[in-house]
Amino acid sequence: MTSGDIVQDSFLQSVLAASTQARLDCHDLIALVERSAITSSQSLSQDTKLHLSRQQRQLNSDLASLRDASRESIFEVRMTKQSTSEARQEVDRLHLQLQNLYYEERHLRGEIYACESYEYAQSVSECLLNGSNVSCSHQYQQLPLIPLEEFLQLQPEHTDNSDEKSLMFARISHELAEREALEQQRQELLKAKQRLIMDNKKRKDDLASLDKDLETFIDVRPVYRVCNGANCLGCQTYPEAF
Predict the structure, then answer these.
(1) Residue 76: phi, psi to the nearest 5?
(2) Using an 8 Å Cβ cutoff, are 146 and 175 in contact?
(3) Which of 23, 30, 27 minimizes the C-alpha distance to 66?
(4) pTM passes above 0.70
């Protein structure tokens, strides 16, 4: 297999042809010089000089063609690299877009699965599949809300509201506000309870300390003689103290 069978590009084939021609011209020039047996004592004939000159010009022409082809090939390589880089960037951009589409598809599938697995959606689908006559309701409709009449008395601005959705939203909002207020009251009562517990504990500690001080005071107090005669109760009860 020759180089012509491997290389299919026309420009590279022309370069190979010019290189082959330059190699042949070099061999011809070397053979001509060897045949002439050039030495320092011999001189070349005029025909030999003319032939050598023509061979050198031909060789120089072939070398110039090779240099032009090499320069052109370098430019072609640079252009090919640039186009390859641009094509690679385009492929990377398209690949990134494809990955983004995969991620978006995965996210949407997750959202669809979350919607399909939602409790209300499941209950409705089960009701429809089973053909149940029981009305399929969501959990928010089972909240322990105050009766509608009482709610309308508390907030009469919703009396003329015929939209069931907005009315239910208002009732849930009212229930949320009431529960938040009750929770705040509960927190305040807990804080008051903690304060009372701390006050009681402090008073117990103060009473215990007072009892201890009183016992100490009674133990160390001296006994003074106070006698009012024979009928003195102290003299009769504790005579050794007097």
Answers:
(1) -65, -40
(2) yes
(3) 23
(4) no
